[in-house]
Write a structure and sequence with these properties.
Length: about 350
């Protein structure tokens, strides 16, 4: 009887451990597709491509502007902004473009959404209160909207959830005239300013292990480079240093080795290029070319594959879960057996 209880306990432990790992699966992972915006088919639409720029596929077809794609941690869904229903609202779709569903319904502008790592919440910014951006969070089905920031006459924008779910990084001009980078707890508490320049620091994104933040900085009036800093705001280091190009909207690769971003030749806001650079600043490579405006790229994990029109999510931990349980259970049974033998003999 004791042996049975022990085995049951070990199986439950193994199950708890493996389930916990699956639940905590966050933005880190193997590099998958890059989503981006382009006007190559006239209106702004969301496209995906392989990390080398090949295999471009269009996901949205509505003639209204579609913008700001952001992958869920498991790579199965993309949250985005669209004006298809009159004003900017937040929408979600599967990684193959199917199942496009509206999540917000408010006369104010809603945009720049980002998933919580467990996929249950979405943070976004909205002008539903007045003509200033404030940050809100909602359940992944659009319900239970809660306001996280409450400032007077300043913009709180561009929120990105940290890979461990505890923090949100964002840009705000609450203290200085231009946007600076801030972090706050996931519930809006303890906002902390990380940068202090007189020019814009904005469009932040986390490294997949949460230790660093990449952002775009206006180094000289109207000239932008990318910078990386530790998550506490120390060790600011330039990632790019170019005068001809203005670099914006950096987004880290799931494996942490690279960063995708878009750039414009200074003075030209019409012909965006989506590019990639190694996390140490080497190996700048253009992924798109041509006169179309390509921008706002975001890198997903390699877990979503369209097979026969259906998304099959391949999560290594999910795949391993039954085997882990078997191994843990077998180890438990062997351990219990040995203990039984030891007691008996
Ligand atoms: Ca469109
Ligand atoms: Ca709206
Ligand atoms: Ca530059
Ligand atoms: Ca272009």
């Amino acid at each position: 009887m004791k042996k049975l209880q022990l085995i049951t306990m070990l199986i439950l432990c193994a199950l708890a451990i493996s389930m916990a790992k699956v639940t905590l699966a966050a933005f880190p992972g193997t590099n998958g597709m890059i989503a981006f915006i382009s006007d190559r088919d006239d209106d702004h639409n969301i496209y995906v491509m392989n990390p080398d720029g090949s295999g471009v596929r269009r996901l949205t077809t509505d003639p209204a502007d579609d913008n700001h794609p952001s992958w869920s941690a498991d790579g199965s869904k993309i949250v985005f902004t669209s004006k298809r229903d009159g004003n900017e609202e937040i929408y979600v779709m599967n990684a193959d473009g199917s199942g496009q569903t509206r999540l917000t319904n408010d006369a104010g502008r809603d945009h720049m959404a980002s998933w919580s790592p467990d996929g249950t919440k979405i943070v976004f910014c909205s002008m539903r209160y007045d003509s200033y951006w404030q940050i809100y969070v909602m359940d992944a089905d659009g319900s239970n909207v809660q306001r996280l920031t409450d400032t007077d006459s300043t913009d709180e924008a561009q929120p990105r959830w940290s890979p461990d779910g505890s923090k949100i990084v964002f840009a705000s001009n609450r203290d200085l005239n231009e946007y600076q980078i801030y972090v706050m707890d996931y519930d809006g508490q303890n906002p902390l300013r990380l940068t202090s320049t007189n020019l814009e620091d904005f469009q932040p994104d986390w490294s997949p292990n949460g230790s660093k933040i990449v952002f775009s900085r206006e180094v000289v009036s109207d000239y932008f480079d990318l910078f990386v800093m530790d998550a506490d705001g120390t060790n600011e280091t330039p990632l790019t240093n170019t005068e001809a190009e203005n670099e914006y909207r950096p987004a880290w690769s799931p494996d942490g080795t690279a960063i995708t971003f878009c750039y414009y030749i200074a003075e030209d806001g019409e012909n965006g290029v989506v590019a990639v650079i190694n996390a140490d600043g080497s190996g700048w490579t253009d992924l798109t070319s041509g006169a179309a405006d390509d921008w706002n790229s975001n890198w997903g994990t390699y877990t979503a594959h369209a097979v026969g029109g259906e998304i099959i999510s391949i999560d290594i931990l999910q795949l391993l879960t039954p085997y882990l349980i078997t191994v843990f259970a077998a180890a438990g049974a062997i351990g219990a057996g040995l203990g039984y033998l030891r007691r008996k003999y």
